[in-house]
Amino acid sequence: xxxxxxxxxxxxxxxxxxxxxxxxxxxxxxxxxxxxxxxxxxxxxxxxxxxxxxxxxxxxxxxxxxxxxxxxxxxxxxxxxxxxxxxxxxxxxxxxxxxxxxxxxxxxxxxxxxxxxxxxxxxxxxxxxxxxxxxxxxxxxxxxxxxxxxxxxxxxxxxxxxxxxxxxxxxxxxxxxxxxxxxxxxxxxxxxxxxxxxxxxxxxxxxxxxxxxxxxxxxxxxxxxxxxxxxxxxxxxxxxxxxxxxxxxxxxxxxxxxxxxxxxxxxxxxxxxxxxxxxxxxxxxxxxxxxxxxxxxxxxxxxxxxxxxxxxxxxxxxxxxxxxxxxxxxxxxxxx
Length: 336
Hints:
Elements: H1 2-10, H2 27-39, E1 44-49, H3 51-63, E2 88-93, E3 106-110, E4 115-119, E5 126-127, H4 139-158, H5 164-186, H6 191-207, H7 214-226, H8 230-259, H9 269-286, H10 303-311, H11 325-335
Parallel strand pairs: 1-2, 2-5
Antiparallel strand pairs: 3-4
Helix pairs in contact: 2-3, 4-5, 4-6, 4-8, 5-6, 7-8, 7-10, 8-9, 8-11, 10-11
């Protein structure tokens, strides 16, 4: 925060700091932030951090200017209730994963149901992408958030929705991640690698306006039920869901393999699609991330309730292959 506080001080702009946002921000934290915003009579919000602080800042922006309970604004059907004017919001990411600074929603934990819910906030009024803000991100977080960005791009590529502009963004994002994620993890002060990842993260949030998929429906439950970091949850589930999707997205996954730099010229389409799964798993392993749910504290007994909750998640309807509750459980078990 030092460079931002320094800039605000030089400009004689008074400010208050709200630093209570946890990983996977909850509805209670958002409302605490709203009360702080109103009590201090602020008129703008500067969201700084990874996906959790940025999502919280977007939700605070909405609830600071709307009446009623936060639960009334959860879900796509409630989007029409969210109106202007709202406090001006500036988003400055310090991680390269969620792209929350430009995405149209905030993911908030509903403490009544212990599930993740979305508020259709719209993006920040202004997003400032400064790769230097990510230089001090530790290797493990660089790895997990980078795989989050990759999951956005791959799920956008195979989404059953038609939006070729988003697909083009996703393919370029995959190329950038394939080129620079390992470098960013191994050499955190490599500004070129950090720039690639910052751009890839932002592009991912634009690409997934086309829709995400089963990876995120499964990962959301891992965060709320087992407190697994969102990016890490995506990293573990991604190869398994990709493999599950091959019968319905073989051409798209073959393209993912080629974009990642896999050698597929002599392979059939199905073999190339499988190579995409192998390549993603290899990348995740090469940057030090665990590959099994059991290794991140998930209990096998948690699988059935998580599978049921995953079916109620808003992401999987865009998965190229339709999912049942049994499919969700099988995917968890494959990753266990």
